[in-house]
């Protein structure tokens, strides 16, 4: 008989252990299903997010899912701000019942924070410090307090309630303890996403403002002179760019022509773009100018060594102070190399001074893509670099060169974003293709630039911009026929 009783006790113990194991498996299954459901909804929201709504949706989803899985009749989920005060609540504050309002109170949240674990309360009316809080309709007797913790910090408090005393047992408490970790992860994700979205919107506005300021650096309108055409196009790869172009008049009537490309892309390049452009304007304006005397003798295309502290060596006849403006390249180079060497920022720059009366273009090419002269006859010439990129080496020598422009000639200066423009298949536009577009003489600078722009846009199609694209074209118009 004793042996039979012992066998019965062992069997009952095994059945109890089995029931406990089944209960734990059910909890694990419910937790996994809930986790999968929350994860699926999070992914759906992330694919088409609405600013400011992800956190609200996650909180609502967590509350409704917890209530459904536990059979709770009422409850509340509060999300705490960085100062520990209630920032959001589900239901929303205006829809809370008197009892639900209790769950948003500082005293209740402090009570949950002190316990730091899921606590099932069989009957709140039997707990002295909670009786006064819950002793009002609608009467709720069972309460399950679930702290939502992330890295030791209380993010939120979920409270589930039922009118039946002892409704929330340890099985439900264990399940919600597991659920709380999933809610914490989802809540943290949503909070971070909303903060990132808010920051992104602010950054987007700042970048748009920076874009407006940078565009204001570019000349609008370009210089306008009788008998000459000046045309430019500018397409930044991002909100702000490192490319720039400029045209400006000197007191003597000469015209400054600049196309530059700061190394790198984005905000850093844009900041230096403004610095390079401003330095060139300021330094070139330090000098006075005189126009060369009219002469039938064509000025020879010679190389002049440029000095800062002395006169130009071997200056040919009729060469005057107009070329002093190009000292701005040397001064800019020295300023950048001396004051910003640590940042390793530099720019390739083509800087020319055009005498619109004689058609002589005096220039320095500081490591820039060689501009192209498309002669009226269809011949092509390149204005190769006369020195390194600006800002690389302190006190470097730059050479000055000059070229004679004739009626119908076009000077096309551009950044390397033109040949480097990429197709959706990542195929570059190439300089060879650009040169092929120049085989036919241009009737105007506008038509030439439009021809190139059309081809580049067709090549890029729907691809993301690879680099800034900048072009500046100058054309001496043909004389108007009187016949």
Automatic annotation (TrEMBL):
Annotated protein name in UniProt: Serine/threonine protein phosphatase
Keyword Transmembrane (UniProt): no
InterPro entries given in the database record: Bact_Sigma-Reg, GAF, GAF-like_dom_sf, PPM-type-like_dom_sf, PPM-type_phosphatase-like_dom
PANTHER family membership: STAGE II SPORULATION PROTEIN E, STAGE II SPORULATION PROTEIN E-RELATED
Coiled coil: 1-42
GAF domain mapped to chain residues: 54-197
A Pfam short name: GAF
MF-aspect GO terms: phosphatase activity
Domain of life: Bacteria
Gene3D superfamilies: 3.30.450.40, PPM-type phosphatase domain
